[in-house]
Structures are given as structure tokens and as C-alpha cells.
Amino acid sequence: MSIFKRIQATISASLDNAVSQVENHDAVVEAALKDARAAAARARVRLARVQKEESNMRAKLEELESMRQKWTDRAVSSAASDESQALECVKRRNACEQQISQTKEAIMRHQELERNVGSSVDRIEQRITDLTQQRNLMRSRHSAADALRVINKIEGDCADGIDDTFERWEMLVAETEYMAGNITNVDLLNETFQEAEDAESLKADLADLLSKEAGRDREVNHE
Q1: What are phi and psi of 26, to 5 degrees?
Q2: What is the pLDDT of residue 6?
């Protein structure tokens, strides 16, 4: 094998190896994006669960506040007639107060958790979008580089270059057309006379048009 062939083989092997590495990188990035999307989806589901729990706690808070008011009204209404009953109503009102306080604290914790998780999910999804765009850009660059690699390989494989290959191809097609009788002999002298005769005919037509136009103008002026 000549030194040029060995160099060409080395370059081709290096390019093939580089392409393989690019493909591996693409696979790694795609796998990472897949895992990130799955993680973001799970985070979104959990965030929705936290939001639902907060909604349930707010409904419970409204119910407790309503019950607190009822036990307050009952304690006031029964204070004069039945003190023990009124005290029991106050006891239940105080229990509602304690549950209201605990529920409000739980809602505040859920709100903080919701803000933190929501912010994290937004950052994750934005990062996924950025990585996807970067991956698509790299794929485009890879495709363009791969196309150039193929073209260079085609031209490198032809000893006289791809242009010489097209020239030989054209010669072969022309020879085939000639043998099939598709090539028509051109009479250059006849074409020269034909062009002159066509020009004279056109000049005669123009002169005729101008004469007719002048005649119509005279008729109009005479009238």
C-alpha cells in the first residue's frame, strides 16, 4: 500500500471513530434528557398532590371556623339556662380553635413547599428545554459535518477526482447517444443563411406595420 493510501485509510478510520464518538454522545445526552423528563414529570405529579392537600386543608379550615362559630353561639345561648352545657360548648369551641391554629400552620408549610417545589420544577423544565435545543443544534452540526465527510470521502476515493469521474460519465453518455443515432449533425452554413432570411422577413413585417399605421393616421387627419 502506498504512503498516500495509508494516509487516506488512517484519516478515514479517524473520521469513522470521531463519528462513532459523536453518536455515543448523542445517545448519552438523549438518555439524560429522557431521565430528566421523567423526573420532572414525577415532580409535577407530587407538586399537584401538595396543591390538592393544601386545597383540602383550606376546605377543612373553613369547616372548623364554621364549627367554632356554632359552638360559640351555643355557649352564649345556653349560658343562662345550663352552665355545664355552656362550658361543654366552650370546650368544643376551644378544640376548634386549636385545630384551626394547627391547620393554618400546615397550610403555611404547604405554601412554602409548593413555592420551593414549583420553582425547582420550573428550573428543571427550562434546563430540559435548553438542553433539547442544544442537542438539536449539535445534531444539525453533526449532520452537516457527516455530509461533508461523505463528500470528501467520495472525492478522495476517486484517483482523478469526482470532476474527472463526471467528465468520463458524460463522455460515455455522449458516445452511447451517438451510437444510438440521437446526435443530429448541424449544418452551420444553412443556419447562418436561415438566421439572415428570418431577420429580413421580420424587417419586412415591421415596415408593413409602420406603413399601415401611417395610412390610418392620414385618414384620421383627413376627416
Answers
A1: -60, -45
A2: 47
* In the chain, domain spans: 3-162
Sign of the dihedral through C-alpha 71, 73, 76, 82: negative
Contacts of 1 (CB under 8 A, 6+ apart): 9
CA 219 – CA 223 distance, rounded (Å)? 6
Is residue 91's pLDDT more than 80?
A: yes
Q: Which three three-digit cell numbers place residue 199? A: 431577420
What is 3-162's CATH number, 2.60.40, 1.25.40, 1.20.120, 1.10.287? 1.10.287
Measure Cα distances from 32 to 37, 75, 136 in Å.
9, 63, 14
User: CA-CA distance, 77 to 69, in Å (whole number)?
Assistant: 12
Q: Per-residue DSSP letters for 137-187?
A: HHHHHHHHHHHHHHHHHHHHHSTT-HHHHHHHHHHHHHHHHHHTT-PPPP-
Q: pLDDT per residue over 93-136, tens digit each?
A: 999 999 999 999 999 998 998 888 888 889 889 999 998 999 89
89-104: burial string, b at 16+ Cβ within 10 Å, e else: bbebbeebeebbeebe
